[in-house]
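hey so i finaly got around to running the thing on Phosphatidylinositol 3-kinase regulatory subunit alpha from Pogonophryne albipinna. pasting the sequence first so u can double check i didnt mess up the copy paste, my clipboard has been acting weird all day
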Amino acid sequence: MSSEGFQYRALYDYKKEREEDIDLHVGDMLLVSKGALLALGCSNGAEERPSEIGWLPGFNETTQEKGDFPGTYVEFIGRKRMSPPTPKPRPPRPASAASVRTDSESEGLVLPDLAEQFGPPETSPPLLSRLMEAIETKGAESLGVYRSLTGAGLDTRQLADADLEQLEVSSLCDGVFRFLQDLPGPILPSSLQAEMIQAVQEVRDLEECAQVLRGVSSSPACPAQYGLTLLSVVRHLARLCLHSSRNQLSPRSLAESFSPPLFRQAAGSDSSLDPLVQVLEVLITSELNMIQAAPVSKRVMC
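ok and heres what it spat out for the 3d tokens, dont ask me to read them lol
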């Protein structure tokens, strides 16, 4: 049994203000039923102008959340038949040379696979989310944020038990780096990394390229948790770049620092020339542009 609905794409991040709202992240795909719009008194064709409708009740296909979201934050994609979701089998994670650890590396804690750490509506592993939030709260404007990253210091087990509010910004940053290092493999399998490299080499427009990259990150070829974690890290880094006049961070410098632990380039490779650095730089820059262009949300009664 299916019904007619409309699909929208989130243009900006939105953090819910009321219990009945849902969060939005750039690139999220949302569904709104035709019946819901008719109940709001919308006429045929109004679905194509969500900014004029105001608040839409719908379903976030990316995060699996249901609730209200502002029409000014989304764009109309098209019509879509709405059917009850059916579970899809999860494909096995491709083997990666980067996931083979030496004896010295294996002495540390190897984290579970991302697909085992969280699931929708969460958008990243709980510990990683807490670390990134603490950094943004305590050190967004600090010159020490993400400088001289080593992954040394507390291991992930100790970080999980620690009071993050009591840690220095440098320890929190090392914690993020250590978390990524302790994952069993890269943030995305090599096949999807190759698609991303092809995109940055062929698509010259930055925003178009970023849209392609976000599409690759949400590919059904791997569990959704991989792409969600990547985009959560990208949003975190972009938010830090909002304070670049104080912390001296840039999308390029952060891409060079985070590309190795996220994508696990071969040892000895020149990160400044690696196309995966370009991938991350494009994603961070696009996210930063989206944040800066986001309108102020105002709830308007229909």
